[in-house]
Every structure is written in structure tokens, then in C-alpha cells.
Amino acid sequence: MVNTPTISKDNIWSILETVTDPEVPVLTITDLGIVRDVILHPPLGDGGIEVIITPTYTGCPAMDMIAMNIKLALIENGFQNIKITSVLSPVWTTDWMSEDGKRKLKEYGIAPPNPRQQVCNNDLFAAAEAIQCPHCNSHHTHRISEFGSTACKSLYQCDDCKEPFDYFKCH
Amino acid sequence: MMNSPLIDYTLHLADTTLILSQRNAEWCGHGPILEQDIAITNISLDLLGQSRNFYQYAATLIGGDASEDSLAYLRKEREFKNLLLVEQANGDWGQTILRQYLYSQFQYLLFEKLQQCNDAQLAAIAAKSIKETTYHVRWSSEWVIRLGDGTEESHTRMLKAIDELWRYTGEMFVPAAYETIVEVSRLKNEWQQKVMNIFSEATLSIPEKMFMQNGGKNGIHTEQLGYILTDLQYLQRTYPGAEW
Fold first, then answer.
1. Residues A80/A47, Cβ–Cβ less than 8 Å
2. CB-CB: which of B45, B49, B141 is closest to A124?
3. CA-based nearest distance A147→chain B, Å
4. B60-73 pLDDT, tens digit each
5. Which of A1, A61, B74, B96 is least surrounded by CB atoms within 10 angstroms?
6. The pTM is what?
């Protein structure tokens, strides 16, 4: 017999904080800033929960998996009647990523996104912005390709330690 | 199938992004170097995501059993409303790049307007997508310049690509009957100006007079589309409802 836990939004958020991005497992979905809202139907009622999420990139294949993992995490914690809704507006940007998330990304070896206004430069052949190497902290790096192993990353290489690394690009 | 200008228009946007996505995906594993193979397939993935959003919206407008999958996999060639430009063959890398650039530059201007339109869902999809399109425009512009102003060989190939593809660009600015949300004819001057700037850096020029092909928006396609759909729809046609 499963006891229906007392539902509070804080309760749900703390569970969501344990759900990670399948492509970047050090980041939780709350670090990424893709959980927009949690709605209780009816408030404090019998277990109806709606989680509103927003995609990072339109084609990101991780989104379906994230939606499934949210459901699983809530079910494991005794919740039922869960609905995941994806909304597009307002548009997700890398500025929504938490400071904690940026720190964890760097420790994982992925350079975290710089603030948008600083780097979203669309000029042709624009000098690649100074991205700090997550391994040796040098700013002496260059971009190899604007497109990387996943939609959200580009490829860089450090000119000092020579290590290639991913940069979570500004969006 | 239910018809309305909004449904037809949404399908036109969905089909155009799907077919270009499918074309770019043909490069997977065949790109000139690994990084550019990854780039063109990333662009393919972005376009696929955009098309899914449009198809999902079209499916809710149509109602009933319609789904993003039924719309992509079970409509016939004459029902597809994509631009002729995006169904053209990949050709060499230069032709793929030029096709991407001519479309992305147009898509950027179109979505700038679309994100301000009165239809909330189309506006939301456009606002989301234009951030991706911004990367596509820059990447493809740089390649047009690199190849046009590159070697004699690459320059010659770009001339050939322009000769091949230019005739399919006129259609973008000729509105179909259902195309009332954004006035595409008003995007033409700005598009041409931007293309001219990139072409001039690339030591290329816009053809002065060329007959323009029309029809894609109304389901009259070039020979190319049938072959694409044969590949794209084979599985669902042969094994209806197959999942994996």
C-alpha cells in the first residue's frame, strides 16, 4: 500500500532537483532552468500534478527522455496522475542556467555558457569569444566548430594545455 | 482532411523544414570533415525539431486521428507544400551549402515577422526557432564566402550551384492563397540585399535574369520530392504503425 505523500510544491521541486539531463548527467533539470512551473490539480488535492517544461533546442532528443524521467521520479516517490506539458514561450535561454549548474558543468569538463549579451555575436567570422578552458583555466582557446556533440554545445580547443573541450554555447 | 488557410500554412512551414532536414541528414557520415559532418547534421536536427513543432500544431488544428507522424509519413507528394528549393538534391558540398544559405537567410527574415504574428503558437515556434536559424545563417554564410572566394575549383562549383538553385528562390516571395500571415513578397528586397552582400564577399553575383520555378507551395513538385518521400515514408507505408 502506497501512502500518498502530502503534496506541496516544495516537495515536488525537491524531487525535480534529482532528475538529471541524460546528455549532461551532472546537470539537473532545475540547474538547466527548463522546469517552468509546477501546478497542483486541485491545489493540495489527490495527487494530480502538472509539470511545465520548456525545451532547450527544438530538436533536442533528450526532451522526451527528460519528460519520462520526471514521471518516473514522481512515481517512485508515490505520486500518481502526472502530466508533463511542454511550452515554447517564453523562450529558454542559457541565462536561465543556475550558477550552481555552471559550476558543475565546468567541473565536468564542459565550459559553461557566458552571459548572452556578452557573446551572442552574429557577425560573420566574428572572433570566437574568450572561452575559458575548463581544464587549465586558460583563456587562450579557439573554436573548432560552432556545432558539437549535442545541439547545445560547440567544440573548442585550449591553446595552452591542448585539450579539446565542449562549450555549452550561448542561446 | 480538414482544410483551412491556417492548417495549410502550418503544413507548408512543417513540410519545408522537414524536407530540408531530411536532405541534410543524407550527409550523416559523408561530410567533408568530421566537424562539418556534425554541423550539417546538427542543422538537420534543429530543422527536424522545428518541423515537429509545426506538425504537432497542425495535428491539433486538424483534430481527430491526425498526429505529427501521420502528417509526415502518410501524406502524398501532391499534399506536401514545401518550397521547391529545399527538395533539391544535395549535389556537392557547395550546392548543399548554397541551398542552406538561401533558405536560412529567407527563414530568418520570415521568422522575424512570424514571431510577431497574432497566432500565439506559430509566434512561439518562430521565436524559439529563430535562435537556431541565427546559427544556420552565420554558418552557411561563412561557407558561401569560403567557397566562393576560395580556390578556382570551389569558385567554379559555387557558380554551378547558383545556376542550379537560383531558379527555385523566386517562389519564396510569391504567396500561396493560404499564405496570409506574413506578407512574403515584402521580404524580397531585404533578402536580395543580404544575399548580394554575402555573394559580393564571396566574389559571386546574383543571376540577372532567370526563369523562376513555382509550385511547391501548392503541391506541384520537382521530380526530387518523390524520391525523398520514398525513403522517408518507406517504413510506415510498409509496416503501418511500426514503432521501435
1. yes
2. B141
3. 5
4. 999 999 999 999 99
5. A1
6. 0.91
